[in-house]
Amino acid sequence: MNVFHRQRLRKNTVVLVLVLSAARCCQAFNLDVRSPVVKEGKTAGSLFGLSVALHEQVVGEKRHLLLVGAPKEKAESGVSANETGDVYACPITADRKDCKRLNLLNIPNPKNDVMDGMWLGVSLASQSQPGGRVLVSL
């Protein structure tokens, strides 16, 4: 074996040792397969679940909720648009169909506002404190 091959073998050995060491210190997680929380949207094609945030409600009934965005959800009745998107509040239960639409649209002058295709709920975030604020973007 010549000097070039020995140096290359040493470099490859060092890289292999570093990769194996890094793999040992990293941890992974698995999804809960015994009792998963699975939720279904009301409208096919609404992209229900595109964004999800865990939120702790402290006003009224104290509970944890999954806030789920459905940016292509059909518009509410009385709104002059086809798709506006919306956000659903889902209790953490085994029931797949217990999510409630939040109907976040509050439009003072619907004739002048462009609402069709606004993708409400495309991004969600909840403050990581009990009763924190929720950010919903469109």
Automatic annotation (TrEMBL):
Residue intervals passing through the bilayer: none
Gene3D superfamilies to which the protein is assigned, alphabetical: Integrin alpha, N-terminal
Signal peptide positions (record): 1-28
GO biological process: cell adhesion mediated by integrin; cell-cell adhesion; cell-matrix adhesion; integrin-mediated signaling pathway; leukocyte migration
Keywords associated with the record: Signal
Superkingdom of the source species: Eukaryota
Record-linked InterPro entries: Int_alpha_beta-p, Integrin_alpha_N
rRNA processing listed as a keyword: no
GO molecular function, one term: integrin binding
A GO-annotated cellular component: integrin complex
PROSITE patterns per record: FG_GAP
FG-GAP repeats: 34-99
PANTHER family: INTEGRIN ALPHA, INTEGRIN ALPHA-3
Protein name: Integrin alpha-2 domain-containing protein
Organism for this UniProt entry: Sinocyclocheilus rhinocerous
